[in-house]
C-alpha cells in the first residue's frame, strides 16, 4: 500500500507491515523476538495503549508511541441494545470522517453454540446510493485504509469493549456489512483481510469473514482468485433489471444476470455457498412476480437466500414487509427449490441499519452525543 498512512499521520500498528516494524526495531538495536512481542501484544484483548505492553521496556514503549499510532480510531461513541446482545459504535477517524461498526451476539440455541458477529465498514459513506440505505443517502466520503478496517475489529477486543471471551480470538465472524461498498475499495479491503488472517495479529480464519457486495462484478471475480476462502454475499434486493436499477443503482453498470453469473462462478470455482441478500420493502420488491424471478435466479446452484425486513431510514417513504407478506414470499421460494432464511433485524432501537446512527449524530461531536445519552438514560454511555 503506497499511499499509507493517510497524509500527515503516523502509520498505525494495525496496518504497518511486519517487515517495516522489524526494520524499525532492528535499527534501534532491539532483538528479533521483539517483533512478535510488539505485534501480538498490540493485538491482545487487555491492551489499550503501547504503555500497557508491560513486557516491553519503558523507553521502547515511549519510542513506539512516537513512531506509530496505537489506533486509527480517534474516538468512539458506543450504544447498546437488545439487552446487551447488540452494541453499535460510531468511530471518528483522524480527519474527522465517521464510520460505524456493530457487535451482535447470538445466544446458544439447540445444537448451535453462542456466536458473535462483528459488522464493519469499508468506506466512509458509499457512492452506490441505494435509496433505502442511510449510508447511500449520505453520499461518499472516502475509502478506508486497511488499518481503519482492522481497527474496527480491534475496538471490540480492547478495553472497555473486550466482549469476545477470554482469549478474544477466533470465536466470532466478521461481515463487511457496515458502511460502504467493499469491492469499490477492493485493494484495501483485501489487504485488511490478509491482516485479519495474520496469525501474529488477530489470526481470524478467512472462512469466518464475509464480504457483502451490491454487485461489483470484477471485484467478485478477483475474490475467486485472491480470497477464495472468504464468504461472498450479494445484495440482490430485486430480480428484474428495471426494479434493481432503482433499488441498487450500480445495477445499471452490472445488471442482475451478470451479477448472478459472477456469483455462480464464485460458487463453482470455490465450492462455497453464496448468500443472496434480499431486503423486503413493503409493496416494492415483495411481489409474487419478484419471488418467481428470484426462484429462477437462485435455483440450481450453491446459493442461499436471506430475507431481511427493511429497517426504515428516517424520513423514508418505504417500510418493511409485514410478517404475512414475508411468509407469502417464502411460500413461493421454497417449493421453487430455493433455500431461504428470514433474518431478524438487530438493534432497531439503536438505528443499527447501515449508516443510520451516523446520520443521527450528524453535526454533533461524539463527546456531546455521549453526554446527551447519559442525560437521557441516567447511565454512562
Ligand atoms: N455495500 C455492501 C455492504 C454494506 S450494506 C452491500 O450493499 O452489500 C450491507 C447490507 O445492509 C446490504 O445487504 C444492504 O442492502 C443492507 N441494508 C442497507 N440499508 C438497509 C436498511 N435500511 N434495512 C435493511 N438492510 C439494509
Ligand atoms: Fe452502499 Fe450497500 Fe448502502 Fe447500497 S446498501 S448504498 S451499496 S452501503
Describe this structure in words.
This protein is of the alpha/beta class. Helices cover 34% and strands 18% of the residues. The protein has helices spanning 18-27, 34-42, 58-67, 134-138, 146-157, 186-197, 217-226, 241-247, 256-270, 288-298, 323-333, 356-361, 366-377, and strands at 73-81, 86-93, 98-106, 115-119, 123-125, 140-143, 172-176, 209-213, 231-235, 274-280, 303-309, 340-342. The strands form 2 sheets. The chain has a 10-stranded mixed beta sheet with strand order 1-2-3-4-7-8-9-10-11-12, with helices on both faces. It has a two-stranded antiparallel sheet with strand order 5-6. Helix 5 crosses helix 6. The longest helix has 15 residues, at 256-270. It is globular. The two termini are 36 Å apart. Bound molecules: S-adenosyl-L-homocysteine (SAH) and iron/sulfur cluster (SF4).
For the structure shown, list the relevant keywords.
381 residues, alpha/beta, ten-stranded mixed beta sheet, two-stranded antiparallel ribbon, binds S-adenosyl-L-homocysteine, binds iron/sulfur cluster
Short description:
By secondary structure, the chain is an alpha/beta fold. It has helices spanning 18-27, 34-42, 58-67, 134-138, 146-157, 186-197, 217-226, 241-247, 256-270, 288-298, 323-333, 356-361, 366-377, and strands at 73-81, 86-93, 98-106, 115-119, 123-125, 140-143, 172-176, 209-213, 231-235, 274-280, 303-309, 340-342. It is globular.
Amino acid at each position: 500500500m503506497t499511499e499509507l498512512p493517510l497524509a500527515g499521520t503516523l502509520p498505525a500498528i494495525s496496518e504497518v507491515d511486519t517487515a517495516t516494524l522489524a526494520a524499525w526495531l532492528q535499527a534501534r538495536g532491539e532483538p528479533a523476538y521483539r517483533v512478535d512481542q510488539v505485534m501480538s501484544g498490540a493485538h491482545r484483548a487487555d491492551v489499550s495503549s503501547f504503555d500497557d505492553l508491560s513486557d516491553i521496556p519503558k523507553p521502547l514503549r515511549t519510542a513506539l508511541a512516537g513512531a506509530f499510532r496505537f489506533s486509527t480510531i480517534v474516538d468512539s461513541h458506543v450504544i447498546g441494545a437488545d439487552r446487551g446482545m447488540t452494541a453499535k459504535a460510531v468511530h471518528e477517524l483522524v480527519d474527522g470522517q465517521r464510520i460505524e461498526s456493530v457487535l451482535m451476539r447470538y445466544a446458544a440455541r439447540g445444537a448451535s453454540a453462542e456466536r458473535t458477529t462483528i459488522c464493519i465498514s469499508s468506506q466512509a459513506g458509499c457512492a452506490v446510493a441505494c435509496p433505502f440505505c442511510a449510508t447511500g443517502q449520505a453520499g461518499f466520503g472516502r475509502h478506508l485504509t486497511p488499518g481503519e478496517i482492522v481497527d474496527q475489529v480491534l475496538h471490540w477486543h480492547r478495553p472497555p469493549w473486550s466482549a469476545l471471551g477470554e482469549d478474544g480470538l477466533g470465536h466470532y465472524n466478521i461481515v463487511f456489512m457496515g458502511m460502504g461498498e467493499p469491492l469499490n475499495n477492493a485493494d484495501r479491503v483485501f489487504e485488511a483481510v490478509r491482516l485479519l488472517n495474520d496469525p501474529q495479529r488477530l489470526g481470524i480464519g478467512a472462512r469466518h469473514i464475509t464480504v457483502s457486495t451490491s454487485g461489483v462484478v470484477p471485484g467478485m471475480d478477483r475474490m475467486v482468485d485472491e480470497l477464495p476462502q472468504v464468504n461472498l454475499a450479494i445484495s440482490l434486493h430485486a430480480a428484474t433489471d428495471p426494479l434493481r436499477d432503482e433499488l441498487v443503482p450500480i445495477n445499471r453498470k452490472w445488471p442482475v444476470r451478470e451479477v448472478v453469473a459472477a456469483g455462480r462462478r464464485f460458487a463453482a470455482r470455490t465450492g462455497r455457498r453464496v448468500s443472496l441478500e434480499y431486503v423486503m420493502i413493503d409493496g416494492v420488491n415483495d411481489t409474487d412476480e419478484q419471488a418467481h424471478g428470484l426462484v429462477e435466479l437462485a435455483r440450481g446452484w450453491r446459493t442461499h437466500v436471506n430475507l431481511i425486513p427493511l429497517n426504515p431510514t428516517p424520513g423514508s417513504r418505504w417500510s418493511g414487509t409485514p410478517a404475512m407478506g414475508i411468509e407469502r414470499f417464502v411460500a413461493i421460494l421454497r417449493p421453487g427449490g430455493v433455500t431461504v432464511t428470514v433474518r431478524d433485524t438487530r438493534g432497531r432501537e439503536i438505528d443499527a441499519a447501515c449508516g443510520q446512527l451516523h446520520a443521527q449524530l450528524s453535526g454533533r461531536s461524539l463527546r456531546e452525543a455521549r453526554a446527551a445519552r447519559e442525560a437521557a438514560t441516567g447511565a454512562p454511555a
